[in-house]
Design brief:
CATH superfamily of chain A: P-loop containing nucleotide triphosphate hydrolases
Oligomer: heterodimer
Number of strands of chain A: 9
Number of domains of chain A: 1
Largest sheet of chain B: none
Number of helices of chain A: 9
Strand content of chain B: under 5%
Protein name (chain A): ABC-2 type transport system ATP-binding protein
Keywords (chain A): ATP-binding, Nucleotide-binding, Transport
Largest interface: A-B, 28 and 24 residues
Distance between the termini of chain A: 44 Å
Structural class of chain B: mainly alpha
Helix content of chain B: over 70%
Number of strands of chain B: 0
CATH architecture of chain A: 3-Layer(aba) Sandwich
CATH topology of chain A: Rossmann fold
Structural class of chain A: alpha/beta
Organism (chain A): Geomicrobium sediminis
CATH class of chain A: Alpha Beta
Number of helices of chain B: 15
InterPro entries (chain A): AAA+_ATPase, ABC_transporter-like_ATP-bd, ABC_Transporter_VariousFunc, P-loop_NTPase
Strand content of chain A: 15-25%
Distance between the termini of chain B: 45 Å
Number of domains of chain B: 2
Helix content of chain A: 25-40%
Shape of chain B: globular
GO molecular function (chain A): ATP binding
Order of helices and strands of chain A: EEEHEHEHHHEHEHEEHH
Strand order of the largest sheet of chain A: 5-6-7-3-8-9
Order of helices and strands of chain B: HHHHHHHHHHHHHHH
Shape of chain A: globular
Radius of gyration of chain B: 28 Å
């Protein structure tokens, strides 16, 4: 069986002469959560944009189930869902209509019951017919999360999902990610909340200046960094120190 | 720049932007509208005064009108969202800034009062009093406006909007009594109420400033509302780019799209349908064009029915060409790019929406031609030509337009 997501030596960015990411190489298997870790400006969002197919790599390739976006655009898109760092909502649609539009776009069947239960999980049932202009940042983020989980794709791409979420929201999100992982989905999550990442991610990709600096399980990172008992945050801080020298 | 100059600076900025909009508005029909209204008033004023029965309660009506105008007050603070961070620490040093704001608001609203009083001047001299008394009334109203601006500004110190409204109603009652005596020419009573107002000023409103702090959040959102209402007004005449179209629920219209089957091919029918129904830009334009087109068709002389057919076709065409920009409406959203829905499906949805709206517009104009006692022959010709144009537009022109748009984007 081919790897779910394979980022093969991808270089790219907004200017061909100044690539933001250079020869980035990693993968996400089915049934695992991979943490994409890096400082601001390390290239996390650019990497994610390449995976989403919003940018085209100048070099290398990205495959989902062995196929690139050029091979089959709609299947590629159908295979994943995305939770953006900043919630992006349609001003014209109510919460419920967002869910319904998602159901339409991904051709979901029997979505209504799931949508209702998502509304309950994230305590948003009361706001079902509200417009986004009445939502707080956390509520908007919850709409994004609900839409992504409604799709139940093979791959989740999650960009810094915890900011602005209330504790119930964070816990529900983590529980749901574990549930999806256990049912065979792969999850790529970029975050700065390292204690959470350490607890929930199976493997890590540490980006620095657009290149993969370290990658692997926590144990492998410790060996590579030569810091036997260190936590993820210590390795991360050590990594940024390199920069100052 | 010191805090004292800041207000002047902001007022200047606001006016330089406004001036540009006002010039644009003047060039695009505002002046015609105002001129027309003034002309109509001028023509009918005298006959209106003659017609107005002597039993008409002029004093009472004027009292309510001016009490309302006095009570409805605003204060231009020119506060901006960022002030919550940058000006908040300066709150104690803001006296001069806020005084400028109060003076400015008093002045601007006095101009409006003066205009209305000037318009009602002939009525006043006809039914109430002498010209001299009108002049005194004017001065008294200006002073009362000043009192109201200060009182309103003090009310805003209260945290709860419900409290503010209670005070506003009380203020309305005070104003009503005051203005009533002014128009009754009962100057001693005016003086008595005036004294009460002065006592309130020092005894009630002033102490509020000591007791409560500025309510920044509220002031900033009030300021935003005021700016927005100006831009919304301007938007009726010229295109204001940064104005965010208000979203309206419009249940009856937007619920029509709830009947769609939840399947992939309907994704954009649903999205664009809801957008059409709720975003101010599209449905509003369709309605406006429907009204203006209908008026023009209705007003066309009978021997120029051919011209009316052209007008009908033209307005249907404009409706379509305005609506098609809905294709770009969500261009800043990442979602349409991520949906596993072929671009072709999206274009088809736009096409069918445009077609349906244009067909509805054609039928509407045809109905209008029936009302205007056209011969059925001309009505049918008009309908046929409009539908022919719709087909040509949707089937030939739109695909080209999509291609160009995509090309321009990449």
């Amino acid at each position: 069986m081919t790897q779910l997501l394979h980022v093969q030596s991808v270089s790219g960015g907004y200017n061909p002469n100044k690539p933001v990411i250079k020869k980035v190489e990693f993968g996400v298997e089915r049934g695992e959560i991979v943490g994409l870790i890096g400082l601001n400006g390390a290239g996390k969002s650019t990497t994610i944009k390449h995976i989403l197919g919003l940018l085209e790599p100048t070099d290398g390739a990205i495959t989902l189930n062995g196929k690139t976006i050029a091979d089959d655009l709609d299947t590629y898109r159908q295979t994943m869902s995305f939770i953006p760092e900043t919630p992006i909502l349609y001003d014209e649609l109510t919460l419920w209509e967002h869910l319904r539009l998602t159901a339409m776009a991904y051709d979901l069947t029997d979505w209504e019951e799931r949508a209702e239960s998502l509304l309950k999980t994230y305590r948003m049932a009361k706001m079902k017919h509200w417009f986004p202009s009445n939502f707080s940042k956390g509520m908007r983020q919850k709409v994004m999360i609900m839409c992504a989980f409604l799709v139940k794709p093979e791959l989740y791409v999650v960009d810094e999902p915890f900011l602005g979420l209330d504790p119930v929201g964070i816990q529900s999100l983590l529980d749901q990610m574990v549930e999806m992982k256990n049912s065979g989905a792969g999850i790529l999550m970029s975050t700065h909340i390292l204690t959470t990442a350490e607890k929930y991610c199976d493997r890590f990709v540490l980006l620095h200046h657009g290149t993969v600096y370290l990658k692997g399980t926590l144990a492998e990172l410790r060996t590579q960094a030569n810091m036997p008992n260190a936590g993820l945050d210590e390795i991360y801080v050590e990594m940024t120190k390199e920069d100052d020298r | 720049m010191s805090i004292d100059q800041l207000w002047q600076e902001r007022a200047r900025e606001f006016w330089s932007v406004s001036r540009r909009y006002i010039t644009l508005m003047a060039n695009s029909g505002l002046m015609v509208a105002i001129g027309g209204i003034v002309l109509i008033i001028g023509i009918y004023y005298n006959s209106f005064l003659d017609w107005l029965p002597s039993t008409f309660p002029v004093v009472q009506v004027l009292a309510v009108l001016f009490a309302f105008m006095l009570t409805k007050t605003s204060v231009r603070t020119f506060f901006q969202t960022g002030d919550l961070v940058y000006l908040l620490p300066m709150e104690a040093k803001m006296n001069h800034y806020l005084q400028s704001a109060l003076r400015y608001s008093w002045f601007m609203q006095s101009i409006v009062l003066a205009l209305v009083l000037f318009l009602l001047g002939p009525l006043y001299t006809d039914r109430i009093g002498e010209f001299n008394q009108l002049l005194i009334t004017f001065l008294i109203l200006i002073a009362a406006k000043g009192w109201n601006v200060f009182a309103y500004w003090s009310e805003l110190r209260y945290q709860y909007v419900s409290q503010q409204w209670k005070l506003r109603w009380l203020r309305f009652v005070v104003n009503l009594v005051f203005v009533f005596f002014v128009f009754m020419l009962e100057w001693w009573f005016v003086l008595a109420v005036g004294v009460v107002m002065i006592l309130l000023f020092f005894g009630y409103y002033r102490p509020l400033h000591e007791k409560y702090r500025l309510k920044w959040d509220q002031l900033i959102s009030l300021e935003e509302e005021r700016l927005n209402s100006f831009y919304t007004f301007a938007n009726a005449f010229v295109d204001v780019p940064h104005i965010k179209a208000r979203i309206r629920r419009r249940s009856i219209l937007s619920n029509q799209w709830n009947r769609l089957v939840t399947k992939q091919s309907n994704t954009y029918v649903f999205l664009y349908g809801k957008t059409f129904a709720r975003s101010g830009d599209y449905f509003g334009i369709m309605i406006r064009l429907a009204i203006v087109g209908a008026l023009l068709i209705y007003a066309t002389p009978e021997d120029l029915q051919g011209l009316a057919v052209v007008i009908a076709i033209l307005f249907t065409y404009i409706t379509g060409s305005q609506l098609v920009t809905i294709y770009h409406h969500h261009k800043t959203m990442v979602w349409p790019e991520l949906y596993p829905v072929p671009e072709q499906v999206r274009q088809q949805s736009v096409q069918s929406l445009v077609r349906n709206v244009m067909v509805i517009q054609s039928i509407w104009f045809t109905i209008i031609t029936f009302i205007t006692s056209w011969s059925i022959f001309y009505s049918m010709i008009a309908l046929f030509m409009m539908l022919l144009m719709v087909i040509a537009y949707v089937k030939v022109q739109l695909p080209k337009w999509f291609k160009q748009s995509l090309h321009a984007l990449s």
